[in-house]
Design goal:
The complex is a heterodimer of chains A (719) and B (289).
Chain A: E1 8-19, E2 22-34, E3 39-43, H1 50-57, E4 65-74, E5 77-78, H2 84-94, E6 95-98, H3 112-120, H4 132-143, H5 149-154, H6 162-175, E7 180-184, H7 192-209, E8 212-217, H8 220-226, E9 229-234, E10 237-243, H9 244-249, H10 254-262, H11 303-307, E11 313-315, E12 318-320, H12 325-330, E13 353-365, H13 370-375, E14 381-393, E15 397-401, H14 408-416, E16 423-428, E17 431-433, H15 442-447, E18 448-451, H16 465-475, H17 481-494, H18 511-524, E19 529-533, H19 541-558, E20 561-566, H20 569-575, E21 578-583, E22 586-592, H21 593-596, H22 603-611, E23 620-621, H23 652-656, E24 661-663, E25 669-671, H24 676-682, E26 687-688
Parallel strand pairs in A: 3-8, 3-9, 6-7, 7-8, 15-20, 15-21, 18-19, 19-20
Antiparallel strand pairs in A: 1-2, 1-4, 4-5, 9-10, 10-12, 11-12, 13-14, 13-16, 16-17, 21-22, 22-25, 23-26, 24-25
Chain B: H1 3-9, H2 13-22, H3 25-47, H4 79-115, H5 117-131, H6 135-146, H7 150-176, H8 180-187, H9 192-229, H10 240-247, H11 255-288
Helix pairs in contact in B: 3-4, 3-11, 4-5, 4-7, 4-9, 4-11, 5-7, 6-7, 7-9, 9-10, 9-11, 10-11
Classes of the chains: A alpha/beta (719), B mainly alpha (289).
Chain lengths: 719, 289
């Protein structure tokens, strides 16, 4: 970085968008210098302006957006003066971009091979199979880890999975041997196991080629895995910029600290440590506070903070935009948000079962063509859920974990009766309930409720919050209108909103507020079991933390049993007392959370744990990557469904025989042909943090340092 | 938080819509034209000095004057009075026909699409087969068997436009019925009527308002066309299409007998179309805001 001209430099860049007749600055005074070969992470929540910066860099801002101040320099030259032709001939040859959603970037009408050839030889004519260009295209596909480049080259984009499409885009991006690669949340829509292989891939390719990378992400974990340096963006301003290890060891801005404290770390549980969400919400560009942008939400704000916007000061090996960064470093200011009150840990012992599901199966029959019917071809079906059994106890949380396509959501919908199961029974408080919603009594419906996935879709945009919340009281609890009003007001306070929210419509609420209302609606019926289907996945981490705390508190108060479905193992391990891991509609492993997350575990669980990006650049961990793709649920592999990808594949027995249930201590077991002792002997904990291992963390005294208690730590020591 | 507190905070929705309509010149013109015709239809009898079929033999084929604003026709009838009465007529006929089509189409669309599977399949295959016959041909067919009368014209409009309304409703319901808030309503054990009426219908309304306005303008056209062809409203009723048809023979002698009813048709249709276009814009903004 020092000496010479950096590859890319932002010099106090401001970007504004026009809305109506007003321009508002979405990014203000942004500085960044990226040298050759450096991997730079750009981190921020939604509304921070990180995507705007990526668009501004690539000179593709939408028509209502403009760089209004500052310069973007590429090899020392101001890009704003470049003509379209010059950009095309010089800039875009050296800079490539991989977007979040790969499919729109691929031409659906051309085969993959041809699209890569076009990058390699833009003016070339279509080529034959033996040509030089074709050979290089296949080489690129091989370099991004495609097992069968020939087949992929012949495929059309829609025939590939999301992970493979993303690999193709990376291949295309690297085909031009760019000096700078911009990755905009390239793994956000992918499963953790796929994400891990993509991150490995990018890391390897970049190291080989001396390519600089600007990695835009909302995830501190992903950035920790990949980047040399990290820039943290808040409300359009760079608040901190530091070498990765530095930043994670000692954040110098209270916002960075707030982000760290909001993310549940693998191995911490809510029984031990409460998350510390950042109160309030990110300000909109049209009404920024007069001083520091973070001042209204800052735990260590002083008077001076609200008077003037702090400058970016050199801090250690990086930069921080906080007048008190020195106080943070020397410990005289505590940048942590105040800790929520400690909660009572769940007692041990047998708790009554609230919900029991056994042998659940859901198949969606495929349509046969007329020809197939005439030929007497067998009826085929998508086997979304084959055999899932689970138990939710009163006041406890069962986490249901698996990748996309594992049947998690189908399981939830089948239990709830929204899509009646093909087989299996659902027992609620000792009584078997009907398969369909229509067949259930209002009482049975009341007992089992759900919080949906999308905060935006879960509330009817045309109805007020009050109208949505009143219904369950009126309908399921049979209260009068006046009584219902009173209860709605109380319920809104329970989810930390005010009764005034009853008059608002969803469009007037933020994402976090919408999700609070959705939680409130589910609780209105006073259910005994509540199903959460990826209910916090779409939220920013600081908002997610608040919702997780809320959901945990409500459980403590009301003793509701939770079935918490998520692909995010860290969130599940934080919230859940029990965990069930599913793959292709089959249970792989089940048991108390602490046991499931520590050895011995199922090889699939082991791979999932190994793939999670950790918030700790120095963490030691096992490195297990799954090969290939999740098989189609129409043709579920015989024997153990995981055998096609299992890193501990034994041989014939895994293909031909269904694995036995091997039980360890009470309640914990795996479906695997490998004996438990052997698993125990060969498996290390999937991760070990750089920080010293302590007992279950300091009860929320100091979340950042109280790291990550060992995975098995949940009140009961490791066996 | 009572409903009164709610309405105090937010202006009534229709006021916001009217404001939005008058914010753009084209939709303002459309809304004004339609309002004008509505006022004429409602208060027409108070403003017209003559009855629509009242003949004054001494005043035949007179050009427009202060006594007869739009002149008189060859039978000595006051054209202004006939145009105003025709306005009232067409609102009643095209309006009630459209209303029937909108109500039946919406109900069928909501129920069939929400239920899905074979119910939806059968309903929409039937509607498709109705749509396969051109509207005018369908009208001639129906009128041929029912005989020309006001009721038959109304039936024609209803039959021809119900499938079109139902398809518009379907396009919205298909999207809405899988929304999580609809699932949430099911999870609260809500009845079918509540789910369709309170959860699904509101999202259909913007598209439905626009489509109703469009259907209304086409219905005006259809009524006028049928009158013109002589198979719809029968003489001596003051139907605009019929008036144009009758006036054809006297176009050089008394052009005003042709111009004013024709102007009535085109201004009303243009007005309703501009209004529909404006509604579409305003309601879209409403939802996204």
């Amino acid at each position: 970085m020092s000496g010479g001209v950096p590859l890319l430099a932002f010099e106090s860049v401001s970007v504004a968008y026009r809305r109506g007749r007003r321009w508002s600055r979405a990014v203000r005074g942004f500085d960044l210098r990226i040298g050759a070969g450096v991997t730079y992470g750009l981190v921020g929540e939604s509304g921070s302006g990180k995507s705007t910066l990526a668009l501004a860099l690539l000179q593709v801002l939408p028509p209502n957006g403009r760089v209004v101040d500052g310069r973007i320099l590429f090899r020392g030259e101001d890009l704003s003066g470049w003509s379209r032709d010059r950009l095309r001939n010089e800039f875009y040859r050296q800079v490539a971009m991989v977007p979040q959603d790969p499919l729109p970037s691929l031409n659906p009408a051309h085969r993959i091979g041809r699209q890569i050839e076009e990058v390699l030889d833009p003016r070339g004519m279509p080529t034959g199979p033996a040509s030089e260009v074709r050979r290089r295209a296949l080489g690129m596909l091989e370099a991004v880890g495609m097992a069968d480049p020939e087949r992929v080259a012949r495929a059309y984009p829609h025939q590939l999975s999301g992970g493979m499409q993303q690999r193709v885009l990376i291949a295309m991006a690297l085909a031009g041997e760019p000096a700078l690669l911009v990755l905009d949340e390239p793994t956000t829509n992918l499963d953790v196991t796929t994400e891990a292989t993509i991150l490995d891939l990018v890391r390897g390719l970049v190291a080989d080629r001396d390519t600089a990378v600007l990695y835009v992400s909302h995830s501190l974990g992903v950035v920790a895995e990949l980047c040399d340096r990290v820039a943290v963006l808040y409300a359009g301003e760079l608040v901190e910029d530091a070498p990765t290890a530095d930043l994670y060891r000692q954040p110098r801005h209270p916002y960075t600290q707030g982000l760290f404290d909001s993310v549940p770390r693998l191995g911490t549980t809510r029984r031990a440590v409460a998350l510390r969400p950042i109160p309030g919400r990110i300000p909109l560009p049209q009404d920024l506070p007069p001083g520091c942008v973070f001042e209204p939400r800052c735990p260590i704000a002083v008077d001076a903070c609200s008077r003037a916007r702090p400058e970016l000061e050199p801090a250690g090996e990086g930069w921080a935009r906080c007048i008190r960064w020195r106080d943070i470093v020397d410990g005289s200011a505590d940048p942590h948000q105040p800790a929520p009150p400690a909660r009572t840990p769940a007692g041990g012992g047998d708790v009554p079962v609230a919900l029991d599901v056994s042998g659940l199966r859901k198949r969606f029959p495929l349509r046969r063509s007329l020809l197939e019917v005439l030929r007497g071809a067998p009826q085929r079906a998508v086997r979304a859920v084959e055999d899932v059994s689970l138990t939710v106890r009163q006041g406890r949380t069962l986490g249901l974990v698996g990748e996309s396509g594992s049947g998690k959501s189908t399981t939830a919908r089948a239990i709830l009766g929204l899509d009646p199961p093909s087989a299996g029974t659902v027992t609620l408080a000792g009584q078997v309930v009907a398969a369909t919603l229509a067949g259930r009594s209002p009482e049975a419906i009341r007992r089992l409720q759900m919080v949906f996935q999308s905060a935006d879709e879960a509330l009817n945009p045309y109805r007020t919050v009050g109208a949505a919340l009143r219904r369950p009281f009126r309908r399921l609890a049979g209260l009068s209108r006046e009584e219902a009003e009173v209860r709605v007001a109380r319920l809104l306070e329970d989810v930390q909103l005010t009764p005034a929210y009853a008059a608002r419509r969803p469009a007037e609420l933020s994402g976090g507020e919408k999700q609070r209302v959705a939680v409130a609606r589910a609780f209105a019926a006073e259910p005994e079991v509540l199903v959460f289907d990826e209910s916090v996945s779409g939220l920013d981490v600081s908002v997610q933390a608040a919702i997780l705390n809320l959901v945990g508190d409500l459980q403590e108060e009301r003793g509701t049993g939770y079935l918490f479905i998520s692909h995010d193992l860290a969130v599940v391990s934080f919230l859940a007392d029990y965990v069930t891991v599913v793959y292709l509609g089959h249970v792989m492993e089940a048991g108390p959370a602490g046991r499931v997350l520590s050895p011995p575990y199922h090889p699939y669980t082991e791979a999932l744990l190994s793939a999670i990006p950790l918030l700790d650049p120095g963490a030691e961990r096992s490195h297990i990557r799954l090969e290939g793709e999740v098989p189609s649920p129409v043709d579920v592999p015989s024997g153990c469904p995981f055998h096609t990808r299992c890193p501990r594949f034994l041989g014939e027995v895994c293909v031909s025989e269904e694995p036995p249930w091997r039980q360890t201590e009470e309640g914990h077991g795996v479906y695997c042909h490998i004996p438990l002792d052997e698993l125990r002997a060969t498996q290390a904990p999937a991760f070990r943090f750089a920080a010293a291992e302590g007992p279950a963390g300091g009860r929320g005294d100091d979340v950042a340092d109280a790291a990550p208690a060992g995975a098995g730590d949940q009140g009961d020591g490791d066996g | 938080m009572t409903d009164s507190a709610l309405s105090a905070r937010r202006p009534r929705r229709w006021i916001a819509v009217v404001r939005g309509l008058y914010a753009r010149p084209s939709s303002a013109i459309g809304a004004s034209l339609v309002s004008l015709f509505v006022v004429l239809a409602v208060f027409g009898p108070l403003m017209t000095p003559y009855g629509p079929i009242e003949q004054t033999f001494t005043q035949r084929s007179r050009p427009p004057s202060l006594h007869h604003y739009f002149g008189t026709d060859h039978l000595g009838r006051d054209v202004f009075s006939r145009v105003v009465a025709g306005d009232r007529d067409i609102f009643l006929l095209a309006g009630s026909g459209t209303l029937v089509a909108v109500v039946v189409g919406t109900l069928a669309g909501l129920l069939a699409t929400y239920r899905g599977a074979w119910v939806e399949e059968i309903t929409y295959r039937f509607f498709d087969s109705v749509l396969a016959v051109p509207a005018l041909l369908l009208a001639l067919l129906l009128l041929g068997s029912l005989g020309p009368s006001r009721t038959s014209v109304l039936a024609v409009i209803a039959v021809a436009y119900t499938p079109i309304v139902a398809r518009v409703v379907r396009s919205v319901v298909l999207d809405t019925k899988t929304k999580e808030y609809v699932l949430a309503a099911r999870m609260q054990g809500e009845s079918l009527a509540f789910i369709l009426g309170r959860e699904v219908l509101p999202s259909v309304l913007p598209a439905l308002a626009v489509e109703s306005a469009l259907r209304f303008s086409y219905a005006i056209f259809l009524v006028a066309s049928l009158g013109f062809l002589g198979v719809g409203v029968q003489p001596p009723n003051p139907d605009w299409g019929l008036m144009v048809s009758e006036a054809r023979d006297f176009v050089y002698l008394t052009p005003w007998t042709l111009v004013f009813p024709a102007l009535g048709i085109s201004l009303l249709v243009v007005g309703v179309n501009l209004l529909a276009d404006g509604l579409k814009r305003v309601l879209q903004v409403e939802v996204s805001a």
